[in-house]
Design goal:
Blueprint (H helix, E strand, L loop, with lengths): L1 H33 L1 E2 L2 E2 H7 L11 H9 L4 H10 L3 H17 L6 H11 L5 H11 L6
Antiparallel strand pairs: 1-2
Helix pairs in contact: 2-3, 4-5, 4-6, 5-6, 5-7, 6-7
């Protein structure tokens, strides 16, 4: 009887481990799919953003990200907080700013404010500057 109980316990543990692995794999695949835009990773689009553009300058990468809209904000916040490249961080903050200004009522905005706030504490002036500019419209709220 003990042997049967132990055997059932082992099978149960193995099935639980397999299920957990499968669930994590599906979640990673879903995340990867969500962060793909026109067949390219979100970070690749951010790399192509011209942060030094003028008001009348064209920026195809920014245009693509803006066209996707607020659904990319969580991914941009992740880049702002976790990317090792400070240029990527500044570009992510810039894109967040543009998308948030064009979609002020988007439900994703409150979720990116902490990332922008952490950007204001960056050691890199450009990251701080862009993060502060992005937060400006919400400072009076």
């Amino acid at each position: 009887m003990k042997k049967l109980g132990f055997s059932l316990f082992c099978k149960s543990a193995i099935l639980t481990a397999l299920f957990a692995t499968l669930t994590q794999s599906c979640a990673r695949q879903e995340e990867s799919t969500r962060s793909q835009i026109a067949g390219r990773p979100l970070a690749s689009w951010v790399t192509d953003v011209n942060i030094e553009r003028g008001l009348l300058d064209s920026d195809p990468a920014l245009d693509v990200l803006v066209s996707v809209g607020p659904t990319v904000l969580p991914g941009l916040a992740e880049i702002l907080q976790r990317d090792l490249s400070t240029t990527q961080q500044a570009k992510a903050a810039d894109v967040i700013s543009v998308i948030a200004h064009r979609n002020p009522g988007a439900p994703e905005i409150p979720g990116v404010i902490p990332a922008l706030a952490s950007g204001t504490e960056s050691q890199v002036v450009r990251v701080r500057q862009v993060a502060v500019q992005a937060l400006a419209p919400w400072q009076s709220r």
